[in-house]
Structures are given as C-alpha cells and as structure tokens.
Amino acid sequence: WWARRCGTTFRLILKGLVEDEALRDFLAPAGLQGKIILDPMLGGGTTLHEAIRLGANVVGADIDPIPVLQARATLTQVPLAQLEAAYQQLTDGLWRSLGAYFAVETLAGYMVPLRFMLYGVRRACACGPAIQLDSLDLRPHDEVRVDPERLGVWQGDRWQGAFIDLPAGVRLIDKRSRHCASCGEKFQVPPNLPYREQLVPLVTVAVCPEAGVEYRPVSPDDQMRLAAAQLAVSRTWQDAAFVIPPGPKSRDLHYRGIDNYRDLFSPRQQLYLWESRRLLAEVPPEIRLNLGLLISTSLEFNSLLCGYKGGNAQRPGAIRHVFAHHAYGFPYTVVENNPLFEPAGRKASGTLGQLFHDRIRRARQWAAAPAERVPAGRGSQQVPLPGEKDGGMAVLTAAELAQGQRRFLLHHGSAVDLPLPADSIDYVITDPPYFDSVQYGDLANFFRVWLQQLLPEAADWQYELDAAAIDPREPVAGAAYDYLAVLGGIFSECQRVLRPDSGRLIFTFHHGKATAWAALAGALRQARFQLVNYYVVHSESPASVHINGLNALTHDAILVLAPAVNREWQRPGWPAHADSEQFTATCARMLGWSLSDAADETDLPAAWQALLSSG
After folding, report:
1. How far is C-alpha 460 from the geometric centre of its chain's CA atoms?
2. For residue 526, which of 42, 163, 202, 315 sits 20 to 30 Å off, Cα-Cα?
3. pLDDT at 188 over 60
C-alpha cells in the first residue's frame, strides 16, 4: 500500500503517550500495555505496527479492503517455516505448469529459464513504420546495444543476430526522436492499434551456463512460445471481471484505448496469475493470505507497463516498476519479466523469489526481533529492542481488547460507524488522506481486480466509493465539501469512542492550500474537537515523485486534539512562505484558532485564504 508513513515519527508520537517516564525513551521497549489505540484510516498500517510493538492493543479500519488484508497478514504471527514450505510448494507447482512458456534457448544451445523479454513500441510517420525504444543502449558503456542500421543486437564485440519479422523499411529509434528527420512528422501510434499489439518483442535476456547474461534477438521458437501462451490464456479469464472503471489516474489508460486490465499483462503473465489462483486454493487461509498478497505485489514488476533501466550504469538490467511515479507510465522499452526466474547468487528485479525474500522472509525475521537505527559516527548502527515484537493476536470483538496485550481488531468499512462502544479508546492516531491526494483508491484497482481472483473469500470486494474521503472516481465539483463531510463523520465517530477525559486525537498534516486547511478545520469543528498542542517535525522529501507538484512542504505538523480544552489560540499573522517550518507552525496555530469559539465557521474558507495568499 502506498500510504505508509515514517515509523520513526509515529513511534515518537506513541512514546509521548507512555505514562511511565522510565519507558518514554525512544529506544525503550514497551510502555503502552493496557492502552487501546485506534487508527480509523488504516492505510499502510504504520500506527498499528508501531503501537503493537509497544504492547498496546489496536483497532484499525479502512474503507478499502487491501489495507485491511495487509494489516491482517503482517500482524498475524505465522511461523516462517510454514510460509517457506508453502512458498516452495507454490513455486514448484508454477514451474510445472508454466516452465515451458518461460523457457529460452541460448546461442550455445542450452535450454534455460527466460530472465525477461524486451519489447519496442510501434510508431509511424508519413515515411513508414518505426519501432521506438527508450534507448538503443541496453547495457552501459555500449556493452549491449541495438544496431539501427543492421537491425539487430551487439553484445560487446559479438554480433548476436538480427531481428526477425520486422515490417519492410522499419526504422529503430530512441525516445529522443520525436519527429521524422525526413518528413518532419511527429512519430505517432498507428491508428486503432490496441496497446498489446503496439508492442514488438525484440530481445530475450537469459543466463547462459557458458556466456553468462546473454542478450539476443527473439527467435522463431520464442515466437511459438508466445503464441502457445496466447492460445492457453484464451481459455482462462473472462474480460468482464477486469473492466477498468473511470478515475483520475485510469483516465490515462482510457485515453490510450486500454479499457481492460488484462491488456496490461502478457499472456504468460496472465497464465502465472491463473495458475497461482488454482494453487492458492489448496493452501491454509492465513498462509494463502500472505502468498496471495505477495503475488499481487509482484504485479508491479510483472506487467506490460514495466520499463527497463538497463542502460543506467548504476542499475544494469533493472526493471522500473509500474508505479515508480505513483501514476501509470508508458515506457518505450517494455519489459516482460519472468516472475519465476531465480538466479543463483544474484538478485533479480521484481521476481517472486526476490520479493519473498525481501517482503516475507526478512520482514518476518525483523518482526520477531525489531531493531532501530541510531547515528554512529558518520553512519548508523542497529540497536536491538529486547522484548518487542511486531505482531499480535487477532480478535473479533471489542470486548476482547480489554485484556491481554498486542491484540488487534480490524474493520473493513467506513469509520463513521465502528463496532466499538463509546468511551473505549485511549488514543486515536492516524494520518488523514492528503486533500488533493494521489488517487490511491483508483490506482489500487490495478491490484484489486486480481486480488479478487486470488483471494475471493478474504474480503468483501465491493468498495463503498461514496464513503471515501478521496473518491477514486473522476473528481467532481464540491470535492472540498465531500472531504469535509466524510472526515467530519470519521472524526465524530472518533469523538464518540474516545475516553472523554484523557482521550486524544493525534495525526500529522501539512498542506500549502487554504482550501485543504479550511476543510480540515470544518471537519474537526463538526466533531467538536479543539487543538491541545502541535509539534513541527520533518516530513517526507519534497523530491518524492508522488507528492512532487502538490505544494509539498518539508515539515509536518503533529496535531494533538481533544474533545474540550481550556486553551485559547490567537489568530496568527502572515506565514513566511519560504520557510517550511515556520509556515507549518503558522498553519497549526491558525487551526487552533479556527477550532475556537472566536472563529466563525462560515468565515473559515475566507480566513484561511487571506492567511495563505498573503506575505
């Protein structure tokens, strides 16, 4: 899930709530035993994981099923040995079913697993057809390159062969060639050509026992395997289950004539998903959940939207995953990855084996014995935290949270109506959606349609769009009001379940737009919250590609609110727009004033506009 936040920030928040001063130190294990903490907008689950590490019992809710499933998988303590055995059984079954489709013959005559296949994209101008690549250099320093004159591949000083079945008169160009040098026309996609038919298989990459990593042109046998996969997949999925709904990010797909998620995956990749579904049905539920999510996350590296970074000297052969920029991108050199490729003694970008090692094996080992990094000289060192564990026991009712520790209750649905009694939660710690957010709900459809197939009984897959603070469909007029109304309902429910005297609502927020702060203030006023205090901390980098251009700041305000406080906030003066820390602090103080009796709710949008348009 995209919306993970810095665990350090949330551990800091949680440590501030520890009553025993001896346990407030950042590196001191435990401290929140006996407390119940709620995150009503679960997202990436940072709050739940950090709180359960400190011994708290936790409640998480989200309108989208994917965060709930991820929290269930990562918080449930499944023995790693069982996951290892089930993973091996899964991959053995996949190899038996799919190995022939992912086989390739090297130039020396060895049959080996394909590592990946590179495609170019069809373009045309008045002069005729062209095939465009991101770069004609496939490995740095001309180690591997496409020859546009001989229409083939060089690897070092070895001629690997010519491409086959290319259109007569075709030209091989890189993405810098936007216009034809002869006719002056812009290179365009040929009309009425579906996306998958725009892709031309050019190069296979495999590891030869004699030559090592080998790049060579696609052969007739390779084409036969592609055709066989196409025939096999025609007997599997039904298109109706994969129609792409409207959305602000999905618009980029519709614009290119892509109306079905199946069109974003090669026949071999679709067979991988089909066989995975069949094999997962035989696995126990908790292990099936982990492996199903693993296969889902592998799709970001196993789609026909994956690009090739092999020309980069620092990342030779690496794959650019689908959402590298938190949006749909359309590379000129497309990579069809082999998800089952497992090289001996080397990493392989985006393969199932690499992802299992990184996201299950190493993650489970860390969760069993968490550690934190601390500065050490010019670097850092890991400090173990004896007694901490990142995991707990699932419960089904709120009553079960009143005893024990490290228990978790998960709710899939809107947080405006939680299955919790009044006055039962010690603290609500969350991270509201960014006002003009990256459309995570829309982008998540890319994974959701396949998770419905892989884990059909794991969740209610009907997504209540109208209850989302950020609607994943096309934006409509009144979006600020919807954000206010939905958050207001969630905050009102937080007010109901918080303990009246000591309960606190705590979250991080920053934004450069007056409309965002005014909507937030309106939602909090609707729920009758007031600001107790604020703290300004470093935020995620403004260079982060998914917030670039969204008025990103370099600081967050940690906002601490309560149902009623005896503190007055003065309306602040103009913020220093060039100073991120001071700007964020000014906005936090303005929020405090906005929630006080001194502020007129009907004037808040104008008051915020006056503040942030000044200076």
Report:
1. 21
2. 42
3. yes
Q: At 558, which amino acid appears?
A: I
Instruction: State both tokens at 72.
Output: 């269930």
Residue 474 has pLDDT above 60, yes or no: no
Sequence-distant (≥ 6) Cβ neighbours of residue 610 within 8 angstroms = none
Domain ranges of the chain: 1-77+389-499, 85-348, 510-615
Task: Report the 10 Å Cβ neighbour count for 227.
Answer: 11
C-alpha–C-alpha distance, residues 171 and 198, integer Å = 15
- State the CB neighbour count (10 A cutoff) for residue 423: 12
Question: What are the two backbone dihedrals, phi and then psi, of residue 550, each rounded to the nearest 5 degrees?
Answer: -105, 40
Sign of CA dihedral 274, 275, 277, 281: positive
DSSP 433: P
What's the CA gap between 417 and 509, in Å, rounded?
Answer: 23
The CATH number for 1-77+389-499, chosen from 3.30.70.920, 3.40.50.150, 3.10.20.30, 2.30.130.10, is 3.40.50.150
Contact 356, 276 (CB under 8 A): no
Q: What confidence tier does 317 reach under pLDDT thresholds 50, 70, 90?
A: low
Question: How much is the pTM?
Answer: 0.92
Please state, rounded to an integer, the average pLDDT across all residues of the chain. 91
Q: What is the sign, positive or negative, of the torsion defined by CA atoms of 411, 415, 418, 423?
A: positive
Instruction: Specify the residue for token string 């082999």.
Output: 338
pLDDT of residue 140: 82
Give just the sign of the alpha carbon dihedral 292, 294, 298, 299: positive
State the average pLDDT over residues 229-252: 94
The count of C-alpha atoms lying within 13 angstroms of the C-alpha of 357, restricted to the half-sphere facing its C-beta, is 10
Of 190, 210, 202, the C-alpha closest to 256 is 190
Is the CB of residue 431 less than 8 Å from the CB of residue 508?
Answer: yes
Residue 435 confidence (pLDDT) above 60: no
Buried b (16+ CB within 10 A) or exposed e, 499-536: eeeebbbbbbbbbbbbbbbbbbbbbbbbbebbbbebbb
Average the pLDDT over 474-481 and give the result.
51
What's the rounded Cα separation, in Å, for the pair 210 and 217?
Answer: 18
Amino acid at 376: A
